[in-house]
Structures are given as structure tokens and as C-alpha cells.
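User: Hello, can you help with two protein structures?

Assistant: Certainly.
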Amino acid sequence: MATFPSSSSGFAFILLFLMTLLSSLIVSHQQPLLDSTEQDSVYEVLSSINSAIPWRTLFPDDLCLSAPHGIVCDYFFEQPNYVSSTLPQTAHVTELNFGYVSDYTPNPPCSPNSTLNSLLFTSFKYLRKLFFYKCFTETTVVVPNVSSSSFGANLEELVFVENPTLVGSLSGIIGNFTNLRRLVLTGNGVSGNIPDRIGDLVNIEEITLSRNHLTGNVPFSLSKLKKLRILDLSQNHFDGNVPESIGNLSQILKLDLSFNGFFGKIPYSLVNLQILEFLDLSFNRFGNFGVPLFLGEMPRLKEMYFSGNLLGGHIPEIWEKLGGISGIGFSDMGLVGKIPPSMGVYLRNLCYLRLDNNKLEGEVPEELWFLEFVNEINLENNNLSGRIPLSATFTAKVDEKFKLQGNSGLCIDEGFGSSKNEGSLEKLKLCNKSDIPNPVLFKEYNSVSSLSSVQVLSSPHGLITLGFYFLLLWYVQR
């Protein structure tokens, strides 16, 4: 006859069974460890970035569970195990961020002798982001040639910022990056042309190559990048014409080609960039074609900068549909004529306006003084003239934010201005009486309310009328 354990021993048996089951469940769901070979590669890379820090001692455990900030892992399901009908997980490094940025992003700090370890491009096949900030500043480091390797198959962000001793060709680092979304190489020593195969980065959303030593033309292949949102090629040595094909980048929000050697005519195809918000073509060699009129057909623009190009001509009347503009840079462009009052009427969100170092003339439109969000309006070194139409209510605001020096014909009433800054109104000359318009005389009397002082004094009949009026006034007041 079968026997059963007593109630006490039965309870212990059940408890032991549950604990065993729970333990097995915990083990079965435990996160996998980083592969030892991949972990060693991380240590080697960290040592090449800063050998003075004992990385293995400080972080001896699995780096996917306890790692320096900037080393990021993720977990992946491998191919199904048909024997056990399970999907085994594996751990892999997906982000490597180097170079201390701030207390909020305290990535492993780089040393002056940092090097670029070759394991970066062979040991991390799941890598999604590679980031270096101020790592290569003294020791020369050559950009690796990974164009023919399998590196970067899963890479989404490649970022090198402020690494002046990182030198070499851009073509070498454009590899098998079919998933790349951000390519940011700014403030480095990278040189050469932009390779045509940059057009193969079909998923790219940002290309920032500013402040390098790049040369040549803008390749036609850039026009293939239908998802591109940001293109920044500023502060390089590019030249030639900007191709009309750049107008094919219909999703672009920011286009910055400033501080290069581009010349010729600004392409009309830019009008196709209907969601463009930021346009900077300043300090190139575009010339003699005037401010493009098609800008008035780009209603999403918030900032436009053309300073340093001798475009010449007048400031066009294109502002009616550009009410969202907050910044305009039109310095040193050879502009002539008057400042359109319509700029003050329609550009109600304007914060920044530079029209300095041109040949503008006439009065400063009063509409500019009443713009609500102005931080700076620079009108220095033109041929502007006339009285600044100010009242005490607006003096403090205008005095801090308007720069008017270098316009010998401008004047201001006595009592306005201060000495807060170099561009203050106090630097302007005081108006003579001849600069101040004569008021309408005797406005409260119907008999002469329609006559200005100029009209009265310009004819003998007016003088007689004026004399008779004063005689009548004297008689009444006796």
C-alpha cells in the first residue's frame, strides 16, 4: 500500500519543489553575458583611448551589466534552436562613445595620446553608434580605410567631433553603411573630395562635414539622398557652382554651405526645398545676380544668411509670405537703395537682422523700431540719413539692440541714447533744427488746420494771413 509523506514533510517537499522550479526559471531567463572575445576588445579599445586608467580593474565584471558610461549593449535573438524550440539570446556591444562631454554624458575621457584601435572596425559587428569627442588633439591619427570591409553593416551613427589631428581621406571611411542615418565629421583634419558613393547612403538623414579641409565640387550623387534632412558643408574649401540637382533634396530642413569658395549663380532649384527652414550661403563668391526673388516662395524659412557675397542690387519686396523669419544676414553684399518698410510690417518674428557694410541710403523705416522680438539689428556703415524716430518708451530697447554707427547722415534728438555699448544711440550726432520736420501750426483752429508751416511761409498771401491772425489773437486776449 502506497504511503504519503506526513503533512509537515509534504509541505517541505512542495516548498523545495517550488524553489527548484523558481530557480530554474530565473536561470532560464538570466541575461546572457558578453562574449569574452568581444569584452577583451572593449578593454583594448579603452586602453588605446586612455591607457592611464585601469579599465579591467575598475570594471572587472561583464561589461553589458556594469560598464563605463558610453559603452552600451543590447540583446539579440539568434537563429531558432529547433531541438529545444527556444530562441537563445546573445549580448553584443551596440554603442561606443568616447570623450568626456559633460557631467550628463561622462563618456570615457580621452588622453592626448589617444589612438584609433583597429579592433573598432573588426570586433563589433552589431555596432550602431561610434562617437569620438576631442580624442585626437595632439597625436596624428589617420582615418581608416573601411570602404572594402564589412564594418558598419549595422552602423546608424558615425560621429567625430573636434578631433583636429584626425587626418586622411573622407573616401576611406565611407564604407558599407546602408543603415547609416547620421554622418557627423566636424572640426577634424579630414581632406579630399566627397566621394560619389556617398549617394549609396540611402537612409542617411544628416550629413555634417563642417570645419574640415575638404575640397572639390558638390557631387551630383548627393541628390539621390531622398531622406536627407541636414546638409552642412560649411567652413571647408569647396568651390565651383552649386548644382541645380541640390533642389532634389525635398526633405531637407537645413542647408549650410557657408565659408567656402562656391561661385556663380545661386541655383533657382532651391525653390523646390519647400520645407527648408535654415539656409546659409554666406561668405562664398556668389555675385552680381541680386538677392534671389524665389526666397519669397519658401514660406517655411526661418533663417537666411547671404552675407559676404557681392550679390548687389536692391533689397527685394519678398517679405509678405515670410512671416516666420527670425534671422536675416545681408551684410557686405553691395546692396543699394532703401530699406523696405515691408520688412518691419511682415517680419513680426524677426530677432536678428544684419544689413551692415552695404550702400543703403534713405531713412531707417520706423516699422523696424517696433519689432517685438528683436535681439540685434545692425545697420552700421551704410549711407542712411535722417532723424531716428524714437520716443522715450522705446529708447532703452533700441539702444541695446540697434547698431547704427558709420551712417554720417543719421541723427538723434537730444536727451535720447546712453553709453551702454559701442553701438548705442549716444554715438550718433544730435539733430539740428533743420533735421527735424516742422510741425503743423495752429492745428486746433479750423481756419488754418490744413496749412503746414511750409505752406504758410512760402507765399506772400500766407504771410499776410499769418500776420492778420496774430493781430486778431492779440486783440482778443487784451
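That covers the first. Now for the second protein you mentioned:
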Amino acid sequence: MTYLERAIESIKARNSHEPEFIQAVEEVFHSIAPVLEQHPEFEKANILERMAEPERTIIFRVPWTNDKGELIVNRGYRIQFNGVRGPYKGGFRFHPSVNLSILKFLGFEQTFKNALTGRPIGGGKGGADFDPKGKSDAEVMRFCQSFMTELFRHIGPDVDVPAGDIGVGAREIGYLFGQYRRLKGAYEAGVLTGKHVIYGGALGRKEATGFGLLYFTKAMFDQNLIELAGKTAIISGSGNVALYTAVKAQEFGVKILAMSDSAGYVYDPAGIDVKAMIDLKEVRHGRIKEYLEDHPSAKYVEGLRKIWGVKCDIAFPCATQNDIDLESAKMLVANGVLAVCEGANMPTTYEAMTYLMDKGVLLTPAKASNAGGVAISAVEMTQNSMRQSMTFEEVDTILKTIMNNIYRDSLNASIKYGYGHDLVAGANIVSFLRIAESMMLQGDY
């Protein structure tokens, strides 16, 4: 067996009950075989085994009281995966599906994504099996305060800087930051990102992941001499990433035909009214089927993955992991899709990804194409440290530069190591080398 094969088998055996984590590790490590051949020093240092083991895993109980006076107990987590390039950086996810496997996969992916940005940040992830949906503001506040009461001792502006993710928006970040400030007795604005702009948040952070996805997509289309304007698209999800993917796609002349939530999708042949969708999801916090109330020409279809049967040029999976499985990929190919551009974390299964690339579909890997959010989180950290702020236009210019750099670096690495224009392999190689070389230089073994 080669070193790569031995390492993967060892990691699978040690984490056999964590399928999402194993999937993420295999997807990255299979890409770096030619790198290991040129760098025998990595095998001597057991770099793969070390890179796949979190530096620290924190699990804790979160007791809180609901509006009925009942005591509820949830489980909280923080995975401080790799801090070799800077403070641990990665979001909190509040969702009933949260478990150790999902957070380890997210922390692993986050480490590689953060390295791609070129910013001095490590990788981490955290969250709880708490569902903020249907909870009052007071209940969410009490949960966040209890969560932070345990976690505050493990984070800090130069230690670990969390942000938001699924179920954690500006409201939750505000409650978490308020409790951290009270417990620390200090105003350390850089301890959390995704804050409201009124107390230290960065303009453009909310839009950054979706906008960055489109900047990366346009760079790929330009490289392949394909005009982006005039194309049709579907977007899974209707959260922050999906909404601002739709905004920027529309600015680039792309017609959005369908968007979804966890129950189903809406299809509008006239093109999704993006402003109305933002009002529905961000202001009214409604379900996506309510879009039909003011858009009678649209139709609603139940079913999580049925959206992939809608004929389009570009598919933007912006909901959650493993959103596109092999069956979904086959539907997309049958309908002539040109590109699948990933906005969520690991939204395409390995089998689906392989099938799409074999069929000539352009594919942007999530760790590269959705890196815009964390890139601007790093900008927010810089602003907080310097006690300065930037305009939206300044932040957006930085974002576009970072995304274009990530595309260029990924493409060049793919070509250098014999993968052609395989952006998945290229992104994995760039981030792996940055992390591995940092570990070697610091004697991190």
C-alpha cells in the first residue's frame, strides 16, 4: 500500500462512525497523490494523519429555559481543527442535525478553505443541536447566553474567532457577543465575525459568500470563453448564501428559474423576483411556498431534491451538504447543465462530482467558490484590530480580488500537477501545500 492508501485506511478506521468526515477527507486526499510523490518529507512526518486529527475538540452541555419555564438541555461543540496559519476560524451551526461527524467535516473543509483565501487564519467549526426555528427571541437569547457561558473560556480574537452559519445570523451573533463581553469584562470586537455593522461588523459580509461564488463562477466562464449573461440557473436553498447568489447572478444577467427550502421549491418561468424573495426570507421569515401569494405564475413543488430536475444552464447548490447525489447529477446532465457551482459546504457527493466531471460539466469546488464569506470575515477581523472600517465598495473590491486569486491559484496548481482544468484537485492541492508547509516550518510534530 502507498502512504496515501495507508493513511486513508487508518483515518477511516479511527473515525468509522463519522461518514461525512470520512467523505471530506477522502475527497481532499485523493487529489494530492502527485504532491506526495514530489514531497517524500510529508510521509516521514505523517502529515496526512496529523492534518486529519483536530487539535482540540470541545463538547459541552447547554441548559436553557424556554418560555414555558421548562429546562431544556442541548449539546454544544467547538472543533478547533488546525491553527497553524492563524486563529481558528469557522462558523457556528445551530440545527438539529448537528453532530460530531458533521462538525469535523466542516472544520476540516474550513481549514482548507481558509488557507485558499491567503489570509492568516486557521480552521474550526462549532454549533449545537438546537433549532432556532419556531423559538421566540427570548428563547434564542437565553440559549445563546448559556452556550457562550461555557464557550467563552475557549475563544478569543487571537485564539478562535467564530462566525455564523446555518441557524446563526446577526441576531444570534449579537446575543453571543453580548454575553461574551459581559463575561470577559472587555470589548473584544474581533472575537466574533458576522456582527451587525453598527457595532463592528463589516459592510458586505452578509453578501460575501454569494457574491464571491459569482465572481468565481464568472472567472471560470471567462476562462472557458463562455458568456455568463443570458444563462438560466436554479439555486437550492433560500438562506443567506442562496439569496445573495441570486442577487449577484441577476446582476450578471443570469435568469434565476427556481429556489428551494427544506420542504420544496418554487419555479417561476418569468424569473424569480429576487427582491420579493429577500423580503419573504429575511424580513417576513416565511416559507418559500408563500412566494406564490404575490406571484401567481409561479408554481410550488414539494420534495427536497426535485429542483435538480428543472432544466437550466447553471446549478447553484447553496443549501447543505450532499445536496446533489448521483441521481440528481444524472437529472442535471440529462437536461444539459453546463456548470455546477457550489455555494454550500460539500453539497455534491463524491459519486455525483465524479459523474458530472466525466460528462464534461464545469464544476467549482465549494472550498474555493464559497470562500468569499470567510475571506471577508478575515477583513472584519482586521478592521476590528485596527479600529477602522471600510466602505461596501472597498470590501467588495477586496472580495473580487481574493476570488479571482483563488481561481487562478487553483487552475495553475491543477495544470502543474497533471490534472488539466480540474478545479477540485487544484483547490485541494493549493490549500494542502499551504497547510502542510506551515506545519513543517513550525515543527508541528
